[in-house]
Design a protein that fits this description.
The complex is a heterodimer of chains A (115) and B (111).
Chain A: E1 4-7, E2 10-13, E3 19-25, E4 31-37, E5 44-50, E6 56-57, E7 68-72, E8 75-80, E9 89-96, E10 104-106, E11 110-114
Chain B: E1 4-7, E2 10-14, E3 19-25, E4 32-38, E5 45-51, E6 56-59, E7 62-67, E8 72-77, E9 86-92, E10 100-101, E11 105-110
Parallel strand pairs in B: 2-11
Antiparallel strand pairs in B: 1-3, 3-8, 4-5, 4-9, 6-7, 7-8, 9-10, 9-11
The chains are: A mainly beta (115), B mainly beta (111).
């Protein structure tokens, strides 16, 4: 399975500010995903990030709030913009290791607290 | 839309007993069903998966069964140990790259 790292691992931010989360993979992958996991809850897909194209957002998530970059096949960023306390959550990236196999592996997550 | 229901939400078993977690999916196009284990403060880890062309898959103490007609799939853990305590998530992959996750089951194995 791919080795996935995320930065930062945690952060405490003031409302109204923005935070950019980085996801790095040790091998080239086509599909990268960003999820949100609110405390005690399940995982909700925010968007899919494909290299060379715009991210595809799920219902309830918009680009202005969660801009995503995917400059190459090993890296992606998710920005949480104009944060409010409701954005306090764990944000996880995941990758599909082999296209068509469907197995997804998760990064360690970024724990965000917005005051 | 696509939906995955998961039961129970919490489950306590005595060490050595079996645990069963059940999921139901709505999209008949779903063809891949992974199970993830998430320990406190850790990332979800893929523990077993099943594809729609098989009915059962086993890996040591864990097994997954799939009933495509009823759109049910289940996780079975035998001879439970304290280190099995975690939150377990099922998911369905409706023929696309997306996963639809269940709501999770908090399993407690009592020593």
């Amino acid at each position: 399975s791919a080795v996935i790292s995320q930065k930062p691992s945690r952060d405490i931010c003031q409302r109204g500010t923005s935070l950019t989360i980085q996801c790095q993979v040790d091998s080239q992958v086509t599909m990268m995903f960003w999820y949100r996991q609110q405390p005690g809850q399940s995982l909700t897909l925010i968007a899919t990030a494909n290299q060379g194209s715009e991210a595809t957002y799920e219902s309830g998530f918009v680009i202005d709030k969660f801009p995503i970059s995917r400059p190459n096949l090993t890296f992606s960023t998710l920005t949480v913009s104009n944060m409010s306390p409701e954005d306090s959550s764990i944000y996880l990236c995941s990758v599909e290791a082999d296209r068509g196999i469907h197995e997804q592996f998760f990064g360690p997550g970024t724990r965000l607290t917005v005051l | 839309g696509e939906n995955v229901e998961q039961h129970p939400s919490t489950l306590s078993v005595q060490e050595g007993d079996s645990a069963v977690i059940k999921c139901t999916y709505s999209d008949s196009a779903s063809n891949y069903f992974p199970w993830y284990k998430q320990e406190l403060g850790k990332r979800p880890q893929l523990i077993i998966d099943i594809r729609s062309n098989v009915g059962e898959k086993k890996d040591q103490r864990i097994a997954v069964t799939l009933n495509k007609t009823a759109k049910h799939f289940s996780l079975h853990i035998t001879e439970t140990q304290p280190e099995d305590s975690a939150v377990y998530f099922c998911a369905a992959n409706p023929g696309t790259y997306k996963y639809i996750f269940g709501t999770g089951t908090r399993l407690k194995v009592l020593a």
